[in-house]
Write a structure and sequence with these properties.
Oligomer: homodimer
Largest interface: A-B, 37 and 37 residues
Distance between the termini of chain A: 57 Å
Radius of gyration of chain A: 19 Å
DNA sequence: ACACAAAAATGACTAAAAGTCAATATTTTT
DNA sequence: AAAAATATTGACTTTTAGTCATTTTTGTGT
């Protein structure tokens, strides 16, 4: 039987899932590779056929989980009839915020371990290997601008600022209720997104 | 002789400086505690009287370096006659950006290792122990708003969004020229700051 | 269906780094 | 200047990472 290249090997998945479970529950630093392989029910050596080291599995986990969340939001949007660009962006942001609010452990893991440089590098590597879907948000954004005749001097920069603003502020708002609990914070944030897109 | 509580013990400083030097040059992961103590010329055990582990010294380094940079910018501002709030904030931001541009290794270290949760936690701990100056930016901001009769629904939130936007975007703009090299990026960013404060 | 080759998996092993602590040195207090 | 408190040491133990010769599984050609 020919190997299905679209599926990641079963043991790699098991390692990823065990790693995620342990990182979430015990923290990254306090989880050893031995614990991960024990939990996954594979031998130590197998770990090293799929990952370079503990940092590698962490980076891949963050990239995969974040990317999945993002693509889910995008798919959901396509089922609605929201057509104004700013509201489309806010829909996606809102979906992601609500998801993370219900999955604070995931958010905690991402926010404690994510740094942008590593994230973009990892996403890019996975994308090269066809292991993740592509940057749909940028396409959506550029299409919306064209169709709706929105004037933006530099749309990539605008989108980039929105993404950064959302990710950096929401983490703290959800996890630490700083500077405001997320539900109070949302109006400010969404207002800012509208300004960024429409002004 | 009575111990001077305002000075951190000499060996702690030496460890911090050695740690910084090694983290910058070899990277955090590739630096061992043994190397740090060798470089600082102290025994292994001494490390553990000042720091819990390698993560602890890293967090304290980031907190101290970031805080110093911030306070330097603030002191410099006080020597100017800039009096409009938005321009004051932009002055500080500009000072910090220029500094980091000239010290990319420091920026790289911060951006690779900083996560906001850990940063605020560490700053807070150091502040409790009087090992760092306080949050002057918030005072400046609140004073400016009062004096200049600026109407902001929630100034803390506005300032917070500015800080987040600046830190998250500038890292990438300086280090990776993404989405634009920092000098092209600045106008967008400063424009955004003005909008946040004045709209 | 079998032999053969290639890839994946194993876990005992080595190497490296973390972290401890009883002994010693230094500093502070009385 | 003795006693008490604090800081420092580095040999040692423990923990964890990472390797690799061997075995098992999977895929391919005849």
């Amino acid at each position: 039987m020919k190997k299905d290249m679209n599926k990641e090997p079963e043991k790699e998945s098991r390692l990823l899932e065990s790693g995620f479970k342990l990182f979430i529950n015990k923290g990254f630093q306090d989880t050893s590779i031995q614990e991960i392989v024990d939990d996954a029910g594979v031998a130590k050596g197998t770990f090293y056929t799929y990952f370079k080291d503990k940092y590698d599995i962490r980076n891949k986990l963050i990239a995969k989980k974040s990317n999945k969340l993002f693509n889910d939001a995008y798919k959901k949007l396509k089922k609605t009839d929201i057509n104004k660009l700013d509201e489309q962006v806010i829909f996606i942001v809102d979906y992601i915020i609500n998801y993370l609010e219900k999955n604070k452990l995931l958010l905690q893991f991402i926010s404690k371990n994510l740094s942008w440089g590593i994230y973009t590098k990892t996403i890019n590597e996975l994308y090269q290997k066809n292991e993740t879907e592509n940057n749909t948000i940028l396409e959506l954004f550029l299409n919306g601008i064209k169709e709706q005749n929105i004037k933006l001097e530099n749309p990539e920069v605008t989108l980039y600022m929105i993404i950064e603003l959302v990710s950096s502020t929401c983490f703290n708002s959800i996890l630490y209720k700083e500077p405001l609990p997320i539900n109070e914070f949302k109006p400010y944030l969404y207002n800012e997104i509208r300004k960024l897109i429409n002004d």
